[in-house]
Amino acid sequence: MAANTTDTKTTGRRVLTGNVVSDKMDKSAVVEVVRTVKHRRYHKYVKRRKTYLVHDETNSCKVGDLVQIQESRPLSRRKRWIILEDAGA
Predict the structure, then answer these.
(1) Which of 3, 11, 41, 49 has the fewest CB atoms within 10 Å, counting from its CB?
(2) Domain that holds residue 58
């Protein structure tokens, strides 16, 4: 699955799509975003993964859910993203 990176015209904040890999914290989740980049030398597409700590106010996300996340103001030391919607539904 490739990560969909889009700029929203109204807010100017990035929106990414990824899978929830952990939901054990209260009002937080860990979302893994996978993107493909072209290797500079071998011109082969390689997967790159990054995890984001995401604010989940209602604790609605479960492990394996496909969600859209958006940049926001700093909510804690590591949380800089919020969940927009469940992209799989």
Answers:
(1) 41
(2) 6-86
